[in-house]
Amino acid sequence: MFNAKIVKTYPPEGGLQLYRVESATSFICSRCHERKTSKLIATNNNDADQLLCNGCYGRLRSDVVSADEAAAPHGAAPQRRPADVRRDQPDGGNVARFKAEEPQGGAPYDINHTGKAVEWKMTVRAEHITGRILPVPEEMTRRLPQRALHVRFWQGGARSRSLWPPHDVHPELQREPTALVDFDWPRPVLPGSRVSVRWDLWTNLRLLFAPLRKPRVVDGLFVRFDYDPRVMTRDVAPSHGRLDQVEEAVLLTLRELGYLDEVGRAFLPDEDLVRDTGERSKPNPPPPGKVRAAIQRLVSAGDLVKDMGSLGSGGILRYPARNGESTVPLLCYVPAMRPARQEDFEAAVGVSARDVSTHRVAGHLMRIGHLDKEASAEAKAAYRRDHTLAGLAGTHDLPPGHTYVREHRRGL
Length: 412
Known about the structure:
Helix content is about 25%, strand content about 35%. The chain has helices at about 55-70, 125-130, 140-145, 230-235, 245-255, 270-280, 290-300, 340-350, 375-390, and strands spanning about 5-10, 15-30, 35-45, 45-50, 110-115, 120-125, 135, 150-155, 160-170, 175, 180, 195-200, 205-210, 210-220, 220-225, 260, 265-270, 305-310, 315-320, 325-335, 335-340, 360, 365, 400-405, 410.
């Protein structure tokens, strides 16, 4: 189970068992797949090797209580059942309904107080960039200066240097999450970038990016800094110009709802992908036949691959498939990745890889649906015009949940 002295055992709840251990213990949560350090650890009674963090324990316990209360006859006490057994069967299928946990990373972690500074780490999410916020520890609400914060961006490692011009930010905070507002991220910073932040308790704020030993191109994006592949898969929308709307909806559904592994691959049982694509496309969902045809085209083109996983106790998806568990066919999105070439460096800064102050940014889609925002009429018209001029097949209408950023030049 885990090697720690148990000092308190809580009453079992819905097939889950919560413990308090003597000292904070580091472990990987089997549900959110994040490394946690805590004195509270939960296990699944069906599989004691499945360790759960306190947050996932609370969410699972809440799900069980809500589902059982809804199913119980009026006036009757709901019966407890194992927390992870959630098998809503799709019509005509025998695959467990599955939805992956959202990867964490947006909140500050590894917070350290040195006496003269507060340091923390974080992973940049798409909502940070589009919402112009910088998540900060709760401590900053009590120590913010009255003067502007001087923000600098640095590259760490052996070739430490300033990356982009510094700027000042008015120290204004929002709640939920606690974050600095009106914070402009430089254009080269991508969702998934890992950042180390240091605030010296006065007016200096430094963001440190760790360079990759060998920069790479991931799904057409030039990636220079250390990043979380799972967050990049979740937060960067596909932008293949040749995709029709149904194919785009399929890829978005798989990337946003699928089980993610550590290299950014996303997996969903095939029937789940068909059903979830339709549900996410309401109020005008494509017929299941069109979704299956789109999936087949994506498989034929190599944008999706077929694989096999398995369902563990309680219907938990496993990849790769494990011996002794029932197998389930999966559709898999694999990020296209290759080492960066000289032309990628040059394209990232415009004409030359050396001493060039601006670079070209191609027209691209930006996902905004998860922020409850809609594209402007100008963005819809610009997408329709550029899509038509490019001679691309399919509808010229902007995909739902996206806005369009026209081609422009950007300073580095």
